[in-house]
Every structure is written in structure tokens, then in C-alpha cells.
Amino acid sequence: MEYRWVILTRGARVTGSVLCGVLAVIVASWLVRDIRAVEFDQLLRYWAGFLDARPRALPATSGTDAVLLVVYVVAAVAALRSAVAATVLVATGVVTIAVRLPGLWSIGSRAMESSFSDDLRGRALICAFAALAAGIALLITAGAGRRPPAGSYEQLPTRPGPGASVTAFLLLCAAGAVLVAWEIRQVVKYPEVFPDWYVGGDRLMHGLVDPPVGWASVLTALLCLFAGVSALSHAVHSRPFGLVAAALLLPGGVSGVALAVHYELFDHFGSLSTETQLTLASWFFQAFVAVLVLIALAPRGFADVPGPFVPGYGQQGYGQPGYGTPGYDTEAQPGRDAGPYPGQQPPAPGYGYPQGGGFGPPPPPSQPPPGW
Fold first, then answer.
1. Smallest Cα–Cα separation from 160: which of 233, 223, 250, 77?
2. Is there a contact between 265 and 280 (Cβ–Cβ < 8 Å)?
3. Spatial separation of the C-alpha atoms in residues 76 and 246, rounded to whole Å
4. 53-67, pLDDT tens digit by residue?
5. What pLDDT was estimated at residue 6?
6. SS3 state at 162
7. Which of 147-151, 187-191, 288-292, 315-319 has the least mean pLDDT?
8. What are the phi and psi torsion angles at 236 (to 5°)?
9. What is the DSSP-derived secondary structure letter of residue 339?
10. pLDDT confidence bin for 158, thresholds 50/70/90
11. Is residue 195 classed exposed, middle or buried when 0-12, 13-18 and 19+ CB atoms within 10 A define those classes?
12. Whole-angstrom distance, CA of residue 82 vs CA of residue 299
């Protein structure tokens, strides 16, 4: 099987980085507004859901916005430097569109009118349109800026290795299934909140610039399932989407754990109802999955070269036996020798980065590698 290499032009990388920077500035401005209007400690307590939180004004953001700020900053840097810049821009654009889209109709609801001033809601609506435009522009940039690699010296897109792929698949799919199960329970037990729980309305309150709670939960579940299934097939896009999905899982898990510790719920765990016990377990599982997936997918993957994935031969590689030799340049590309780092010994003859695909010895020097 041949994989299509996707490299972004320099102009597309710069454009994508600038767009991510614009999105970061938009989120940062709202976080600064809340810190100044609410006070930082009270803002954190409000985000965590503490009942004794006493903010001076109603915050417009949630913990998800703090995570999105980090995502945008990382995406801006990755757009300039990463081999998977195209998929990073796609993942960032998709999440931005999905998160900001409900604001077009929820910002003007009666619940928001009674809680926020007209000036603040006007600015929130402008920011929602700007974020949506930037998200769409990211998708266009990632699609229009593609080109084939100009030479063997360029980094090719990387894929997660077998261990990271299996870890991401199991944990993200499990987390997605748990979120879906809780959403089903929510609709069955509280049918009166439907559809406000998912699309917003006058009966439920949420952050001014944030999507409704149900919408955010379903979005996170879909991202987890998509990234988990993609990781199982070692897809290039599984790393960016998996990292974003884990990042969106993190604030809910951390807030839940903080809430349980603050109210000493574990001291009375045995006396709690079964549903409350499952809720606590879900919070801890969500935080655990987020941290572990971030650790598993954050390291750089393996170069995307032609051929099927061949685990267990040499180290790890895609159609290239012996690829990933310890002490060698794991970002080596076809046509460029993978030499040892300074101070390290070369491998035994015949081992290392081969000149041809498949098993068996490489062709003689006078014979070009297959497919070249």
C-alpha cells in the first residue's frame, strides 16, 4: 500500500501559524477579562464547580478555554516546524468550528441577555464569527497548501508507533464510550432539558463564549472515538486529533477530581449512591486517560514512507525493515543515510536503514532501489 505524502508550502505554514495565533489571542482576551472581573482564585473555583465559589461577576469562559489557548499556541508552533503540520491545522480548524458554532445562536438567548451586558454579548458574537472564519481558513490552508516533498532532505509526516497506537485506541475509545453512556443517561433521566442541553436555550446556563454542556460532551466523545480508531490504523492524523481529544478530556477530569477532593467524597465513598460512585470513577478515569494519551502521543512518531506497516522488524517502521535503529536519526528520509550520532558506533554491516523496501538484503549498489 502506498501512502500519499503531504507537505505544506512555506506560505501555508506561515498562514496557518498566524491563524492559530489569532485564535489564541481571541481566547486569551476572554480569559484576561474573566481574571480581571472575577479574580483568578474565584475563577478557578467556578470552573471546578465548587458550590462555595463567589465570583464578583459571571465568568464568560470555562476550563476548556484555557486548554484551547494551549492548543492554539502549540498548533501555531507546530504549523511552522512539524512534519504533520497539515493534519495539525485540520484538527485545530475542525475543533474551532465545532466549539464556536453554537455561539451564533446561544449568545442571543434570554438566559445570556439576563446574565451579560449587551456590549459583552456583542463582542462575544464578533469573536464567534472571527473564530469560525479562522477555523474555516485553517481547513482551506491545509488543503490548498499541500505539495509533494521537494527532496529527500525534507521531513515526511510521522505516524504513531504500535505501542502508542494501541494505547490511544484502547483509552480514547473507552473514554468516548463512557461519555456517550453518560449522555444517554442524561437524556433518559432528564428529558425536560432536551434539546437545551445540546443546542442551548433559556433553561440552562453555560459560558458566554462556550458551547452548551451536552454539545461539548458529545464533541469530545466523537473526537475520542475518531482519534482512537484512527490510531489503530497508524494514521498520520491520529496524533494531532488524539492529542486534541485528550486535551479536551483533561479539564473535565481535573475539575471532577478537584471537586471530589474538596468535598472529601472519597471519605464517604461507601455511603454514596451507585450513580455518584460511578460519577467519581468516571472523573478519575477521564483524567487518567487524558494524561496517559498525552504522554503516549506527544513524542514524535515514525517517518511515513511507502509500504505497509512492519512491526517487530529491527525496531519499528512502515515498509522499511530495520527502521528506528537505536542511536540513529529516526527522522531519516528515503535517499538520506541514517548515520549515527557523534560518539556512537556504526551498526553491523547490512543493518540499519535499507535502500529498498520489503524483507531480504538490499539490491547491489549499481541497481536502483525498487520504485525509484
1. 233
2. yes
3. 18
4. 888 899 999 999 999
5. 65
6. helix
7. 315-319
8. -60, -40
9. P
10. confident
11. exposed
12. 12
